[in-house]
Design brief:
alpha/beta; uronate isomerase, domain 2, chain A; TIM Barrel; 20 helices
Length: 476
């Protein structure tokens, strides 16, 4: 890819090029949802080779290689790091049309200064060049984050994670200006599997000193762990749901269901939905009390290939898009929270693209004076984080909400090189706005467009890091 082409990648409008290069590109990154290993950042990890950094923890690449017929040994198995890198080099040229093609080119160029495309013929030279640089100063975990201009990253942490890496990071004398904060991944709180639930409750008891033998004790122990997250600066909490539940039940009934589950009994799907509803409402109210943002990742079908699950674990890159979300249950859940003035600021992440307009419209139903975009679509997620998906998301928000209040982009990734995704998103946003301006569809007012770009790419997320009382409406 020629240097001029790389500089102007995806930028086909004159005004879009100006907006990206002059306004968007220099902005810091706030990555409010990622899966980076916090210990690797706290320890300022060094990487032995490019596979260790770039391929070992990236299910996007694994998925593409599997589709290309690459053996699992060369993806997540026993093959050497060199063999895995060459397997990716065989696959990457075939990803034309995928964001992986552009992301990979941007990552090699921005981090390693490599302009040539990765392919079987260039793989050995690029392997050597990357590994030589990784052995030098300036390529540790925190150095890579600084190179990408990351200001804040919020890792995804289980309720029982020790959070020691976050405490350690606070004491690192050279960590500034990078800020690493925990964010809660609440899935295990809502996983009501009779074979594992009692064990989880025992671990929760050990972590908190609260004996979990009732639903009230379970909630008290969860609240104590949320306090630990809050003390380390947590601002976001997310949960992954294939389907939203809203099956209200009296307190005595959900307590009974909890006791049955804790004793090892298998509960019915209806009973599970009743208990999950109670716990979801409890968590949301806890988030509201702490001024956290609730993220709901909706519609992933995670149970697909049992073979790959056994080989690679739950996050092995083999999930697919699930059924459309039942919006009646979602709005019923949000309405319950709003009725008691305990609805937190909420980001909705639909995985099924058919849900995008539907969930965007929900944001107009749940609003609060002085809190712009209180309920809104989150960034284009997973199977939507390509150019078409991002453009569509931006247009949907513009059509049905307020584009100027959109919270921007996240990596949703385990890779420290994935911050090119923010640049990819910024290019798409700037080109879309620039093409509208050049066509006369919106005023070609660069000051006004620049503010919109700055807000969507950086300042809206920065505001959402703060309590709602500190968010200013501002002027358009």
């Amino acid at each position: 890819m020629a240097e001029t082409q790389a500089n102007d990648l995806l930028l086909t409008s004159r005004s879009g090029r100006a907006l990206f290069h002059e306004v968007a590109a220099p902005l810091p990154i706030i990555d409010f949802h990622c899966h980076v290993d916090p210990q690797s950042v706290a320890d300022d990890q060094r990487f032995g080779d490019i596979t260790d950094l770039w391929i070992r923890s990236d299910p996007y690449k694994w998925r593409a290689m599997r589709i290309n017929g690459v053996s699992e040994a060369e993806i997540t198995g026993a093959a050497s790091h060199s063999q895995k890198f060459h397997a990716w080099a065989r696959t990457l040229p075939l990803t034309v049309g995928s964001p992986l093609f552009h992301w990979s080119a941007l990552e090699l160029r921005q981090v390693f200064g490599i302009e040539s495309a990765l392919a079987p013929t260039s793989a050995s030279a690029i392997w050597d060049r990357c590994n030589t640089q990784l052995a030098q100063p300036g390529f540790s975990a925190r150095a890579l984050l600084r190179k990408a201009n990351v200001e804040v990253l919020c890792t995804s942490d289980d309720l029982l994670d020790s959070l020691a890496s976050h405490a350690q990071m606070r004491l690192c004398p050279d960590a500034s200006p990078l800020q690493m904060l925990p964010s809660l991944r609440a899935d295990r709180v809502l996983t009501l599997d009779a074979s594992t639930f009692a064990g989880f409750c025992k671990a929760l008891s050990l972590a908190t000193g609260i004996v979990v033998e009732s639903l009230d004790a379970y909630k008290a122990a969860i609240s104590k762990r949320l306090d630990a997250f809050d003390a380390l600066g947590c601002r976001f909490a997310d949960v992954g749901l294939e389907q939203v539940v809203c099956e209200l039940a009296p307190k005595w009934r959900v307590e009974q269901i909890f006791e049955e589950l804790l004793s090892g009994q298998t509960i019915t799907p209806h009973a599970a939905a009743q208990l999950q509803t109670d716990l979801l409402l409890f968590l949301a109210r806890q988030y509201h009390r702490r001024d956290w943002v609730m993220q709901m990742h909706l519609g992933a079908q995670r149970e697909t290939s049992a073979r790959l699950k056994n080989l690679t674990g739950r996050a092995g890159g083999y999930a697919c898009i699930g059924n459309s979300v039942d919006v009646s249950r979602l709005v019923a859940l949000l309405n319950q929270l709003e009725q008691t003035e305990q609805l937190p600021r909420t980001l909705l992440f639909p995985l099924n693209p058919a849900d995008m307009e539907m969930l965007a419209s929900v944001g107009g139903a749940f609003v609060e004076e002085g809190v712009p975009g209180k309920v809104q679509l989150g960034p284009a997620w997973w199977f939507n984080d390509h150019r078409d998906g991002m453009e569509r998301l931006l247009k949907v928000i513009g059509n049905l909400g307020l584009l100027s209040r959109h919270i921007g982009m996240t990596t949703d990734s385990r890779s420290l090189l994935s911050y090119s995704r923010h640049g990819y998103f910024r290019r798409i946003l700037c080109n879309l706005l620039g093409s509208w301006a050049d066509a006369g569809e919106i005023p070609n007012d660069m000051a006004r467009l620049s503010k919109l770009v700055q807000d969507v790419c950086y300042f809206n997320a920065k505001r959402w890091m703060a309590p709602p009382s500190s968010i200013q409406l501002g002027s358009p």
